[in-house]
Amino acid sequence: MTAVTQVEARPAESKAALKIVLCAPRGFCAGVVRAIEAVERAIERYGPPVYVRHEIVHNRYVVESLKAKGAVFVEELSEIPDTAAPVIFSAHGVPKSIPAEAASRNFFAIDATCPLVTKVHREAEIHHKRGRKVLLIGHAGHPEVVGTMGQLPEGAVQLVQSVDEVAALSVDSENLAYVTQTTLSLDDTAEIVAALKQRFPNIVSPHKQDICYATTNRQEAIKAISPSVDAVIVVGSPNSSNSQRLREVAERSGCPKAQLVDGARDLDWALYDNVRSIAITAGASAPEVLVNEVIEAFGKRFDVTIETVTMSSENTFFPLPRELRDNP
């Protein structure tokens, strides 16, 4: 007969309670969904490789996933050999010189520029045709800014990054219009626009705000929720403009701790030692799988309860580029 030794059960080490507030909407916007699907559809239809100029969207996880499927990312078309494979332009948009270069090399080019970025391009072109100097509110060097400025002849668009730069402008106040990058801080942009209108009362504004619906919705949600939590986590890559703006909005809205992370591996756990509530959101190019990864990481360390706070709903849809549609 085998002796059985009974061991008294010990309670598991107790975890500190943590409330997670999930912001909604968060994550992918319609333009990002369209761009990613464009690359995936091109790979399915034509096989690898499919070349993509610049990161299709600014998220490391997305880019690496597409690489594994057969996408080849380049910064310039000169890196691409002569090929019949598709060459896709990223969601951020490109200067007019890029499609022209692709045509000169007989590339099968597919433009995955977000339609809301294309809207800004068309606005700038219309202002130029009407004889107006175009001011672009945005961040120097961002691919979207480079693309928008590249829609018009050199010198036709002037970049404005701050209220101080508004004060330094030397332009014809009677023939002036402005457009904006689509992923800016709403508050920062409002300050610059106010300064422009004060100095140039006749400046022509966009018919509809250029900052996109997804950027607006995510910023408004985190602005409303940030004051009521101990910390905010924004899931998104460091080179994502809209993700960086979400972190800034959280800080300005009164949250003492705000961290931008590519995924759970980037979490700075020292920040959360005495935290009892956090809000989690995600930039417009960050997939939900990374949000879930962050939640799971907290679940291993805390006794987690989850609440979703929905500030607005989104049902925007953009069809794929015509070259990739089943019924073009």
Average pLDDT, to the nearest integer?
Answer: 94
Counting structural domains, the number is 3
The CATH C-level class name of the largest domain: Alpha Beta
Radius of gyration, rounded?
23 Å
Lateral strand order in the biggest sheet = 10-9-11-1-12
Mind telling me which CATH architecture of the largest domain this is?
3-Layer(aba) Sandwich
Sequence of secondary-structure elements = EHEHEEHEHEHEHEHHEHEEHE
N-end to C-end Cα span? 78 Å
Q: Which secondary-structure class do the elements indicate?
A: alpha/beta
At the fourth level of CATH, the homologous superfamily of the largest domain is: 4-hydroxy-3-methylbut-2-enyl diphosphate reductase, catalytic domain
The total of beta strands comes to 12
Might you state the CATH topology name of the largest domain?
Answer: Cobalt-precorrin-4 Transmethylase, domain 1
Strand residue percentage = 15-25%
How is the biggest beta sheet arranged? 5 strands, parallel
* Residue share in helix: 25-40%
- Shape, per Cα inertia axes: flat
Low-confidence runs of at least 5 consecutive residues: 1-11
Count of discrete alpha- or pi-helical segments spanning 4 or more residues: 10
